[in-house]
């Protein structure tokens, strides 16, 4: 199913033709539940309560978008675009306005990411080396464990590398993951030179024909200069042994930290060549809008998303599933996934009064509300 078909479904509330949800849809559905209930429900409340599309409405919309972490720029872009669109299409009814908002969100998302490729890079031959960076606690080690499990299940030969020798307990944590997912871990004692651990691992990977090498790094060093030096040294060691490596430098960002994540990303961009983002803990935030802010502000592709703590909750980032997961049921009033959709729709708030009320016969407005579910988007 095409992207826009899916989005159409998102705001018509149409059920998919194929009734069986794919596993991918299901993960996104569950992982974005909080965002949908937070962000989606707030937008719904705004639509349900507005009386006219006036300055107050736009201000409230901007606030709601900023609260959802889409970022100031994106919030302003959407609100500007909406002003234009409302004028052009004379969209004043609740349905029309919310439709335009979703359309604009998708358009802005697509336009900002035209040259971005969110697929992971792999070596043409020999081992693929992926370096994981990010501040402490964002989910680097967990992501590596989940990814090791994924590649292992796919039949690849995987190696994990404990190059976070700085934090007490970090090596052990990766060793534990190694046992859990049955993947070998290259490790040295605490405080060893991380680059020497990486050197050993890369040698081993070449000699023993490993397919995937996942390198864990320290989230915290004494200062930025040290961090930069260390990451440079690690990269140099990799490139010396595998000229086109590292194939990915993935920055882990915790979605629950909101705008702070953007600041971290900018700092890491200064110290290393980040090739992609792993956005973790999306399941733990009601502000999934951060994905839009990342694209608009950073222009680094989000390649992987963490949608939960289970091993298979790490997914390749799929923008379609993401946007759909965020806005599904937005206009129909179905705020949560497991909702008995019909009941929720019928028990919607009182009919909306808009400043066009006198142009639209009341019966028509009511009818439009009740049949919203069967309506197809133009
Ligand atoms: N709910 C949820 N929790 C996650 C996700 N990813 C990681 N976590 C949790 O976040 C916590 C920190 O994860 P770690 O993998 O240890 O983070 P780290 O970046 O390696 O941290 P340092 O080693 O201290 O630099 C753990 O409790 C993980 O279970 C996710 O996608 N969803
Ligand atoms: Mg760690």
From TrEMBL:
InterPro entries assigned to the protein according to its UniProt record, in alphabetical order: AAA+_ATPase, P-loop_NTPase, Signal_recog_particl_SRP54_hlx, SR_rcpt_FtsY, SRP/SRP_N, SRP54_GTPase_dom, SRP54_N_sf
Start-end of Acidic residues biased regions: 337-346, 355-370
Transmembrane portions of the chain: none
GO cellular component, one term: plasma membrane
Residues covered by the SRP54-type proteins GTP-binding domain: 301-314
Matching Pfam families: SRP54, SRP54_N
Region (Disordered) location: 335-378
Localization of this protein: Cell membrane; Cytoplasm
Binding, GTP: 134-141, 216-220, 280-283
Keyword field: Cell cycle, Cell division, Cell membrane, Cytoplasm, GTP-binding, Hydrolase, Membrane, Nucleotide-binding, Receptor
EC main group: hydrolase
EC number, UniProt record: 3.6.5.4
Membrane topology: Peripheral membrane protein
NCBIfam families for this protein: ftsY (TIGR00064)
Oligomer and partners: Part of the signal recognition particle protein translocation system, which is composed of SRP and FtsY.
Its job: Involved in targeting and insertion of nascent membrane proteins into the cytoplasmic membrane. Acts as a receptor for the complex formed by the signal recognition particle (SRP) and the ribosome-nascent chain (RNC).
Family classification: Belongs to the GTP-binding SRP family. FtsY subfamily.
Protein name (Swiss-Prot/TrEMBL): Signal recognition particle receptor FtsY
Lineage: Bacteria, Bacillati, Bacillota, Bacilli, Lactobacillales
């Amino acid at each position: 199913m095409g992207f826009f078909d899916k989005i159409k479904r998102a705001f018509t509330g149409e059920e998919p033709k194929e009734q069986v949800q794919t596993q991918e849809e299901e993960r996104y559905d569950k992982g974005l539940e909080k965002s949908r209930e937070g962000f989606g429900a707030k937008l719904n409340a705004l639509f349900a309560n507005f009386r006219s599309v006036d300055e107050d409405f736009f201000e409230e919309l901007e606030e709601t978008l900023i609260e959802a972490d889409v970022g100031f720029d994106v919030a302003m872009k959407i609100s500007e675009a909406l002003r234009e669109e409302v004028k052009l299409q004379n969209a004043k009814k609740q349905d029309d306005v919310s439709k335009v908002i979703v359309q604009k969100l998708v358009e802005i998302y697509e336009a900002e990411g035209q040259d971005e490729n969110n697929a992971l890079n792999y070596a043409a031959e020999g081992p693929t080396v992926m370096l994981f960076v990010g501040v402490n606690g964002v989910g680097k080690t967990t992501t590596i464990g989940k990814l090791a499990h994924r590649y292992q299940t796919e039949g690849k030969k995987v190696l994990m590398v404990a190059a976070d020798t700085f934090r007490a307990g970090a090596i052990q944590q990766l060793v534990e993951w190694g046992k859990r997912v049955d993947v070998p871990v290259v490790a040295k004692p605490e405080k060893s030179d991380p680059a020497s651990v990486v050197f050993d691992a890369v040698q081993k990977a070449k000699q023993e024909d490993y397919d995937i090498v996942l390198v864990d790094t320290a989230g915290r060093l004494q200062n930025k200069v040290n961090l930069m030096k260390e990451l440079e040294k690690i990269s140099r060691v990799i490139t010396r042994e595998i000229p086109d490596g590292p194939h990915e430098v993935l920055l882990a960002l915790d979605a629950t930290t909101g705008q702070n994540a953007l600041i971290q990303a900018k700092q890491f961009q200064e110290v290393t060549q980040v090739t992609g983002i792993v956005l973790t803990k999306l399941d733990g935030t009601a502000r999934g809008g951060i994905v839009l802010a990342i694209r608009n502000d950073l222009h680094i592709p989000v390649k992987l998303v963490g949608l939960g703590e289970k091993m298979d909750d790490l997914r390749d980032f799929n923008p379609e599933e993401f946007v759909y997961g965020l806005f599904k049921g937005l206009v129909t009033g179905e705020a949560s996934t497991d909702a008995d959709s019909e009941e929720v729709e019928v028990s919607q708030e009182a009919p909306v009064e808009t400043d066009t009320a006198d142009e639209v016969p009341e019966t028509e407005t009511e009818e439009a509300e009740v049949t919203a579910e069967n309506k197809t988007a133009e």
